[in-house]
Amino acid sequence: MEENSFKIGDSVEAEVTKIHAFGAVVKLPNNKRGLIHISQISDDYVKNINEYLKIGDKVTAKIKKITSDGKIDLTLKKKKKVDIPVSREKEFKTCAFEEKLDAFLKKTKE
User: Most exposed of 23, 61, 68, 76 (fewest Cβ within 10 Å)?
Assistant: First the structure.
C-alpha cells in the first residue's frame, strides 16, 4: 500500500509495537504507524489493554480517521447491527398501556 492509498474505512494488517494505558501503537504497511485508542479495542468495556493485546500481535484493523498531519486512528470494533425488529407483543403492550393511561386520566379529570 502506498502512503497516500490509506482511506477511511479500509481494513489493514497491523502489528502491535507499543502498549500504553490509553491505547496501542501499531505498525502499518510501508512502515506507517497508527493508534488504536483503548475505546476502540473491543465492543466490550476495556479496563486493561494488556488483557486484549500484546506487543507483536498481528491484527486486522479498520482505519477510522486520518488527520491532516498524517496521524492514523484505527479501530478493532465490529459494527453492530441496529436493526432490531419490534415484536407485535411489544406493540400490543404499548397500545394497552396507552389506553389504560388515557382511561385513568379521563377518570381523574371527572
Answer: 68
- Are 10 and 63 in contact by the 8 Å Cβ rule? The answer is yes
Into how many domains does the chain fold? 1
Q: Alpha helix (H) ranges present in the chain?
A: 88-109
Domain that holds residue 38: 3-75
Whole-prediction pTM value? 0.67
Q: What is the CATH number of the domain that holds 21?
A: 2.40.50.140
Domain contains 30: yes
Task: Write the DSSP string, 68-83.
Answer: TT--EEEE-PPPPP--
Q: What is the pLDDT of residues 9-66, one digit of tens each?
A: 999 999 999 999 999 999 998 889 999 999 999 988 999 999 999 999 999 999 999 9
Kindly give the pairing relationship between strand 58-66 and strand 72-75.
Answer: antiparallel
Picking from 38, 25, 49, 41, the residue whose alpha carbon sits closest to that of residue 77 is 41
